[in-house]
Structure formats: structure tokens, C-alpha cells
Amino acid sequence: MPSPALNYVIGLLARREYSEFELRCKMQEKGLSEQEIDDTLAFCQQKNWQNDHRFAENYLTYRAQRGYGLTRIKQELQQLKGISSTIISEVEQTLELDWHAQALLVLRKKFPQYATLTDLKLKQKIWRYMLSHGFKPDHFAHYIGQGEIEDQGY
């Protein structure tokens, strides 16, 4: 099935993973027909060159390492990458990331004095930062202003 559409998609996938939605958008920008897009994507998925489940796993792991929480990553996957909530839930269950440890790493990096804070404005700033980065309050609230937390190997 050599075609310009397939060559284009293979070139994209050779550089990085893409979701089906992203590839579909890129191919539509190129002016390809819907039938050509569907055929090309089906062929790539059959060969396992494109896989939304694998894409979601890689994306979730990458964004978590970059300091983002589950809520924000889920939102990005759904709205920006076009991944279904079913796939996101499956990936979330299989990866089993420790979001408490992730939140602690972010706190230590961005706010080194998080454990000894008494100023309400600074605590609010930390809360806003952590929530905007997709962490749930139960992942980080118990660390803020509670005295020194002993290192638990995180």
C-alpha cells in the first residue's frame, strides 16, 4: 500500500509517537481525503506502528516525570491528543504511578521550604501551583507546613 499518505505518516511516526487524532489532523491539513486517511491509519494500526494505548502510556509517564499530576495529564490526553477516557483509565490502572511521591518531588524542587512554611499567602501560592499542575489536594496537602518530612526514598 505505498502511497503519499502512508509515506507522510511513516515519516511522522519515525520521529515520535502520535495519537490517531493527531495524525488525522495532520493529514487533514495536508488536504488528504477522508477515505485515504482512514485507510492509512487502519494500515498503520494493523502493523502496530500507531497505537493509542502505547501513546497514552508514554505520554502519561513523560508528563509525570516533567512534574504534572494525573488530573492535568488526563485533561491533556482527552482534549489535546484525542485519547478516549476508556484508554486513559486502562493506562492509569496499568502504570500505577505513585502520585504522592511525584507531588513530593515537585514540592522539593519548586518550593524547598514547603515543610516549614507558616505564611498563609505562600501556602496558598503552593496550593494554586500544585492544583494547576494537576495534583489532587490529598497528594500534597499533608506535606505543606507540617515540619520537616523525613526522607522516604523519594
Structural features:
disordered C terminus; 9 helices; 64% helix
Give the helix/strand layout.
Blueprint: H1 4-15, H2 20-29, H3 34-46, H4 52-65, H5 70-79, H6 85-95, H7 99-110, H8 120-132, H9 137-140
What does this structure look like?
By secondary structure, this protein is an all-alpha fold. The chain is 64% helix and 0% strand. It contains 9 helices and no strands. α1 (4-15) crosses α3 (34-46), α4 (52-65) packs antiparallel against α5 and α4 crosses α6 (85-95). The longest helix has 14 residues, at 52-65. The chain is elongated, with a radius of gyration of 20 Å. It starts with a helix and ends in a 14-residue tail after the last helix. Residues 149-154 have low confidence and may be disordered. This is Regulatory protein RecX. Belongs to the RecX family. It is found in: Cytoplasm. Keywords: Cytoplasm. It comes from Bisgaard Taxon 45.
Q: What composes the largest sheet?
A: none
Rg calculated over all Cα atoms: 20 Å
Mean pLDDT: 90
The helix/strand order is HHHHHHHHH
Measured distance between first and last alpha carbons: 49 Å
Category by helix and strand content? mainly alpha
Helical segment count? 9
Overall body shape: elongated
Please give the number of β-strands.
Answer: 0
The unreliable regions are 149-154
Q: Provide the helix percentage.
A: 55-70%
Strand fraction equals under 5%
